[in-house]
Amino acid sequence: FKGDDTCEYLLSSGRFLGEKVWQPHSCMMHKYKNSEAKNCLIDKHIVFIGDSRIRQLFYSFIKLINPQVKEEGNKHGNIPFEDKSASIKVDFLWYPEVNGSMRQRIKSWTESSVAKPHIIVAGAATWSIKIHNGSNEALTQYKINITSIAPLLEKLAKSSDVYWVLQDPVYEDMLSDSRKMITNEKIDAYNEAAVRILNSSSRNSKAKVKVFSVSKLIAQETIMKSADGLHLPESSRDTNAMILMNVYCNKIMKPIDGSCCQPQPPLTLIQKLAFCFFTLSIIGYLIINLIHRNNFRKSKSCTDLESGEEKKPAISTPNVSTLEMLLHSFCKLGLIMTYFYLCDRANLFMKENKFYTHSSFFIPIVYILVLGVFYTENTKETKVLNREQTDEWKGWMQLVILIYHISGASTFLPVYMHIRVLVAAYLFQTGYGHFSYFWLKGDFGVYRVCQVLFRLNFLVVVLCIVMDRPYQFYYFVPLVTVWFMIIYVTLAIWPQIVQKKANGNCLWHFGLLLKLICLLTCIYFLSYSQGAFEKIFSFWPLSKCFELNGNVYEWWFRWKLDRYVVFHGMLFAFIYLALQKRQMISEGKGDPLFSNRVSNVLLFISIISFLTYSIWASSCKNKTECNELHPSVSVVQILAFILIRNIPGYVRSVYSSFFAWFGKISLELFICQYHIWLAADTKGILVLIPGYPMFNVLVSTFIFVCVAHEISQITNDLAQIVVPKDSSTLLKRLLCVAGFFSGLLFFSAMQDQSRH
């Protein structure tokens, strides 16, 4: 590696993903929109100086600012461009040869009385080869001229960004007779001279001319599509312009998916405090561990002086203190969070853009499905949606979602719509699971609430601190947290209706249905009243949790997208448990859920419904329109899947232990992928082993899964300590947690003030 200067990689190396997507060697390139380009270049003056190839680059560059620009005017003359709305001025200056005229123009910018351009893009050579018929004397003169220009460019580079564009190769078979003397051998000689001479006198690494050599690599792949063998096709020119925009603008705009040329973000006050806390935890655990080892050695063996025999102490499980367990958990967590930070905040590991192909998504899907079927075992119980089955369901859905994210399949609308159903199915399980617990157990105690909230939010809170990200960034956890609280409040408020009470009087069932209707009405009102929704979640300190980029629109969009599915999960649980109580379904091993005739009819309807939804989702043409329908129709495929999975007795009595294992850590997998499997906050892919994409995915996946499993265990261990069953102890812990979050809000406010 050449250090963390990703600008050098961006300007000099890369490869094509497919035909048109350019991937720099070590970093991610952002695709700038017109508004972003204007914001970056506001009040800037940019100059392109050179021949017809530089003119092409000039046009591609100004089209990033204004796509309506047409390539008109005198080709062999100066071309001005101005965007008055953003005070951007871009000029093309026709200087086809590196000669005295070009030198004089560049020299004029070095004079103190003249306003210097903020960006200078220069390059020329093919005209010199053509006019002088490829003679060696012309090359010698080119070296002399560029030697005289180099100090001027280096002087300008102290205050401006100066780029020298190397000459692209030509497609010699397509060149006209008047250009036959322009050979790739000659071009290489001119490029070699330019690279050797430029920056030769510069001693300050920060003030140097940036050599734009990546255009050569792009041309080598695309020059065959050239119209005349000399000028690049439009797609290649656009790629060069986008690279130029990334080099200059990434450090200004700081796009998440543009890691090239971005400096490492400075540590915040909260991150520094977290680092100190984890360091102290590691030191504390090591000290306690050393003391225990020392005590163990002293009492390891004792000699019976009377018999002369060695007596071994009785083997017993060591009594691990709460403090030691706490420090051990934080010690492991500290090391894991260091890995998180190094992967996605420090410029230590490479990052690459995603690139979708059908094979990159569907081949891994087939592979994991085969593995899942291979690890088939009998369930401990044969109830509908039993524990093993729900873990299996979560597991295969999570694996499909992970493959969807790493392959960049969101660009393929049919896949996107099916993945939306999987996310909805998670929320359906949230409604089903929590409703079932409260309905059957009647446990509305604080302990249960705190346990659920801790397990859901612990990892995300730690990541918000360590990775300096808002809570809403990990949108799925806020979503399930809020829905859990909605379910809890709906069932806990007076009158508390549970199964035990409802068994005594059937009217209580209608009371519960009335509660559910009220919940549905509230959901419907909020989904069509964005203003009311935003007012609720814009109150401090709720706004600190649900704002993203200064507003709660993203939170409203995420909530609205699956607004009915939790209600559907609660309603399904109510109907299923009522049928089960009245023994209207058969859940014995190997028995169909209903009578053979009813089971066959329901199975047929479920399969047709499942396929109908898939056909509709696959025929989607507009993401916005399909997202509008999704909240109402996603339940069709979810219910169809549940019935297909549970009606046949044999299918209900087996499960995949492979998928179930992943299902138990599905939440950790979903959250951890943001930083240690994907990169740049899910926008790219983490590269631990450059040059070997498949091997890299295998290694990073292995580490990622191990870390997720370890975090799951740490969360379970800490839940026992932080959320004890004893009411008085729990109250004290809750006061400590309240103090912790108050401190977090205080330091967060300090950070925000210092940033502004």
Automatic annotation (TrEMBL):
Q: Name one GO cellular component term.
A: Golgi membrane
The way this protein sits in the membrane is described as: Multi-pass membrane protein
* Keyword annotations: Acyltransferase, Glycoprotein, Golgi apparatus, Membrane, Transferase, Transmembrane, Transmembrane helix
EC numbers on record: 2.3.1.45
> What would you give as a GO molecular function for this chain, any one?
N-acetylneuraminate 9-O-acetyltransferase activity
Q: Which InterPro entries match?
A: Cas1_AcylTrans_dom, NXPE4_C
Concerning Pfam families, the annotation shows: Cas1_AcylT (PF07779), NXPE4_C (PF24536)
Q: Where in the cell is it found?
A: Golgi apparatus membrane
Q: Which reaction does it catalyse?
A: CMP-N-acetyl-beta-neuraminate + acetyl-CoA = CMP-N-acetyl-7-O-acetyl-beta-neuraminate + CoA; CMP-N-acetyl-beta-neuraminate + acetyl-CoA = CMP-N-acetyl-9-O-acetyl-beta-neuraminate + CoA; a ganglioside GD3 (d18:1(4E)) + acetyl-CoA = a ganglioside Ac-O-7-GD3(d18:1(4E)) + CoA
Membrane-crossing segments per the record: 269-291, 325-343, 355-375, 396-417, 452-468, 474-494, 506-526, 561-579, 600-617, 659-679, 685-709, 730-750
In Gene Ontology terms, what is a biological process of this protein?
carbohydrate metabolic process
Q: Which ranges carry the NXPE C-terminal domain?
A: 22-92
Chief localisation class: Golgi
Q: Where is the Cas1p 10 TM acyl transferase domain?
A: 253-734
Q: Which domain of life is it from?
A: Eukaryota
* Family assignment from sequence similarity: Belongs to the PC-esterase family. CASD1 subfamily.
This protein's name: N-acetylneuraminate (7)9-O-acetyltransferase
Species annotation: Himantopus himantopus (Black-winged stilt)
